[in-house]
Amino acid sequence: MSQMVASSTNESASSSPQMSAMRSQENTCSSSLSSCSTMPGAPKSDASSLPPITTSSLPSDRQRLIANQSWDKISARHPIGCKNSTPDTETLIDYAATILEMRLADVVRHRRDVKNSRSQASSMVSEDGLINGVKIAPTAVAGEMYEVDIDEGKLEDLEGLQPPSIVLLSSNCRAQVRAYVRRIASMYHDNRYHALEHAVHVTMSANKLLEMLHEGGPVDPDDDTKDMKKFAVSLGASYQSDDSSVSSTESTSGKFSFVFAAIIHDVDHQGVPNARLVVENDPIVQLYDGISVAEKHSIKVAFRTLNESEFDEFRSLVFESPDDRLHMHHIVTNLVVNTDIASPERAQSSKDSRMALRHSVVIETMLNVADVAHSMQSWELFLFWNRNLFEELYDAYKGGRSENNPANGWYENQLFFYKIYVLPLAAKMQMCGVFGRRGGEFLRNAILIRDQWEREGDQITKDMIVSVERESLSSA
């Protein structure tokens, strides 16, 4: 997400209404280290210590932990919002790499299934239209899905046709995935907000959104097919996906691109908004014509790194063909650039709420939600992440990289940001229909957080400003 300045509109005429955020550490956890349980560190892994992922692999402990987290409790630190429970870098890398591995394994599994089904169908269909002696539907075409009329007595003839357990991701490939995530992690700066932990939180939230698509169920069965087809197009078919032979609601390559975009979306972020980079005439500004420069730079860094020789096996599974490469680059670019919520181009494209729900924008909306997920999850996460953003903006102000003291108007700006961005975004998640009965969860959470901030935020802001200024003086 392009960084939002808390209080001033003077820094850039083109910047959107500023995002404010804060957290009160005193309200979320004890100041004592013993009151917070730190996350266990994940050891660095090489190929020799990583078992391959196969079609019969059981979920790892990390996969189960990720799957069991509810939307409103997603966090890499526990207790959530606890200042002293900072997860170490290897733990954050393990979270992100595990999600990429799961989604990449799904891509490989799907490709193998499609190829095997076509090959199997071609080899089993005889000239008289029989598959192992079973008559197929007369409209069946080789290479497509078959509708088979099976006699009960013929079922035994079809036993044993399932392929044996096969390797989806080799040990070496898993090591490359983790090495890639580690390299990306090393290029995240030590910012208070736009740092590795934020990228991992966005990735975990993005992955959860994909899971929630299958958890909600239809609100109205008559609308479900229509809504899911809309999402199908958004997740891949409109980009000529290699998954076009099946329902792209199950577009595994689109889902991988989605979580990939999440982990790389703020890589090499300098901790200041695009408007400031333009003022400072940063070298990347000229490369991207001054528009969404941080986002476009992150995309370039991510793909340039992926093209390095040490990631050959990983890359060969992500891209089976030049078309795959173009397809993924197109999706990731659209997703990441769309997280620049201060972009005038994005603001123009979002004016019409109906147009904002056109096919390709459903998935872009989902990444926008993941990017500010804390504002639609829980009060504790809201306080934690928004204080981090306040501290980042305050650091920029004290360091001479911003003319605006974020403390000015902080409380009011929270309410304004909810009004003009968070609540409409949450409502859009319900309107698009693809989350079924769970579609209203985002808006309900956002309203609860907004209302609690309206009641308590003024005093919390005053306490936070005193706390941050005191910490700044003590570290000077």
In words, what does this structure look like?
The protein has 476 residues and is mainly α. The chain has one domain: Orthogonal Bundle (Catalytic domain of cyclic nucleotide phosphodiesterase 4b2b), CATH 1.10.1300.10. Helix content is 53%, strand content 2%. It has 17 helices and four strands. A two-stranded antiparallel sheet has the order 1-4. A two-stranded antiparallel sheet has the order 2-3. The model is unreliable at 5-40, 131-148, 221-225, 236-250 and 351-358 (pLDDT under 50).
Please outline the helices and strands.
Elements lengths: L24 H4 L24 E2 L6 H8 L20 H36 L5 E2 L2 E2 L31 E3 L1 H16 L9 H17 L8 H14 L17 H13 L9 H6 L3 H5 L5 H14 L5 H7 L3 H16 L6 H6 L9 H13 L7 H20 L11 H22 L9 H35 L1
Antiparallel strand pairs: 1-4, 2-3
Helix pairs in contact: 3-4, 3-5, 3-7, 5-7, 5-14, 6-14, 7-12, 10-12, 14-16, 15-17, 16-17
Keywords: Hydrolase, Metal-binding
Protein name: PDEase domain-containing protein
GO molecular function: 3',5'-cyclic-AMP phosphodiesterase activity; 3',5'-cyclic-GMP phosphodiesterase activity; metal ion binding
Helix content: 40-55%
**Which structural class best describes the helix and strand composition?**
mainly alpha
Arithmetic mean of pLDDT: 81
Global shape:
globular
Output the CATH topology. Catalytic domain of cyclic nucleotide phosphodiesterase 4b2b
**Unreliably modeled segments:** 5-40, 131-148, 221-225, 236-250, 351-358
Please state roughly what percent of the residues sit in beta strands, choosing from under 5%, 5-15%, 15-25%, 25-35%, 35-45% or over 45%.
Answer: under 5%
Tally the structural domains. 1
Q: What is the level-2 CATH architecture name?
A: Orthogonal Bundle
